[in-house]
Specification:
Elements: E1 2-6, H1 15-39, E2 41-43, E3 46-48, H2 50-65, E4 72-79, E5 82-89, E6 102-103, H3 107-121, H4 146-150, H5 161-169, H6 183-192, H7 205-218, H8 223-232, E7 255-256, E8 262-263, E9 278-279, H9 281-293, H10 297-301, E10 307-308, E11 313-315, E12 320-322, E13 325-331, E14 336-342, E15 347-353, H11 364-377
Parallel strand pairs: 1-5
Antiparallel strand pairs: 2-3, 4-5, 4-15, 6-9, 7-8, 10-11, 11-12, 12-13, 13-14, 14-15
Helix pairs in contact: 2-11, 3-7, 7-8
Length: 381
């Protein structure tokens, strides 16, 4: 079920607005009352009342949406055998019943590693394959492997000031957004850096982008087609893609910067696997359900820790592992999102926003984690 909640700042309401608001609230009350009977279910000997859950979710989301007049915040939840979706709109954004399509940024990375997991299970690639196996310019025994690309331990440099400056003066080399290196520059880097990487973990868009490039080439296709053939079609995710189809264009949301400025749609060419995917809350719930169920052994493989950073934190193949929570977030110039799930409780949440969010303020990642805690508290431990 998708429920749109339209709100106005109460301090600005006049008498006419108050009357309209009263009518809206009455209608909302009847909608919720009807839906409550449909979605309250017996769960482990107790009743999980999604009527109350909705109110709690709105309380969690409200600090985020109240200051963003054009926000479309879509939230999807799974609690054992239950599912629900909610969309909250800003004061100037009229929500309609249709699938809202978002840029999902780095959630694209766990699409990439899900394909990697399947290909490992099928014997098409091996997690310890050297990248030298896939590029003639790189030594065959290069210490960087597919696993190192997938868990961000490849040693590729992070965001460097000097590289950013040199890129400003190099107008002839096309580079994807959020990627300091082009494909050719990345291959040259590994050609000239052949020692075992010393860094334990350094998040790299370029590394994950290179992994997607390798997987697509191994499948004798391009990354965009690989996403369709290996994920979108098998999982029945009709609104998940990279290039925007003409018949889906109206559903693709306008994105906004932190300051509320409009941004054009994201374009990535060489390193699509790092963050070029677009999707909806319903499609991502389907993706998450397969990961929760362990029905796909290749997907399950990606949940196993490949590096441990502390007692509570590690990384699998793409996924961040935090206690029992398996998660990833994402951000583009104009969107931000979060996807996380707890296999021990069979709960999960997807949060999608058409605003880029500041790291140190309320953001979809924090909203998602708070909702996941709410879901876990609502069921028997």
């Amino acid at each position: 079920m998708e429920l749109a909640i339209i709100y106005k700042y109460y301090t600005k309401l006049n008498t006419e607005d108050l009357i309209q608001l009263k009518d809206i609230l009455l209608k909302l009350h009847f909608i919720i009352s009807e839906e409550q009977e449909k979605i309250s279910v017996l769960n482990g000997g107790i009743i999980v009342d999604l009527h109350n859950l909705k109110k709690d979710i709105f309380k969690i989301a409200y600090p985020y949406i109240k200051i963003r007049p054009n926000v479309a915040l879509s939230i999807g939840i799974i609690s054992q055998d239950q599912e629900a979706t909610f969309t909250f709109g800003g004061s100037n954004f009229m929500m309609e019943e249709k699938p809202y399509i978002y840029e999902v940024g780095s959630i694209s990375k766990v699409f990439t590693t899900s394909i990697l997991g399947e290909m490992i299970q099928e014997g098409q690639v091996h997690v310890e394959d050297s990248i030298g196996k896939y590029f003639s310019a790189i030594p065959d025994n290069h210490p960087v492997t597919l696993k190192r690309l997938a868990n961000h331990t490849s040693g590729l440099p992070g965001i460097g000031v000097l590289k950013n400056i040199s890129n400003l003066f190099d107008t002839e080399t096309p580079r994807d957004p959020f990627c300091q290196y082009s494909l050719n520059e990345t291959i040259h880097y590994f050609k000239t850096h052949t020692d075992e990487p010393k860094v334990k973990f350094r998040y790299s868009n370029v590394g994950m982008g290179l992994l997607g490039y390798i997987l697509a080439n191994t499948l004798h296709t391009d990354y965009e087609t690989a996403i369709k053939q290996r994920l979108a079609d098998p999982l029945n995710m009709p609104n998940t893609f990279i290039s925007i189809p003409s018949d889906k264009a109206e559903a693709v949301l306008q994105g906004y910067t932190i300051l509320g400025h409009k941004k054009p749609p994201l374009q990535m060419n060489e390193f699509m696997a790092a963050g070029a995917v677009r999707s909806t809350v319903n499609d991502l719930l389907k993706f998450m359900k397969v990961h929760l169920s362990d029905e796909n052994s290749g997907y399950t493989l990606t949940h196993q820790a490949t590096e441990t950073f502390s007692e509570h934190m590690g990384i699998g193949l793409g996924w961040l592992l935090e206690d029992n929570i398996i998660w990833h977030n994402g951000s583009t110039k104009a969107f931000s999102c979060y996807l996380g799930f707890d296999k021990t409780k069979q709960t999960g949440v997807v949060v999608l926003s058409n605003y880029r969010s500041p790291i140190l303020a309320t953001n979809p990642g924090q909203i998602g984690k708070d909702i996941l805690q709410l879901l876990n508290r609502s069921i028997l431990k």
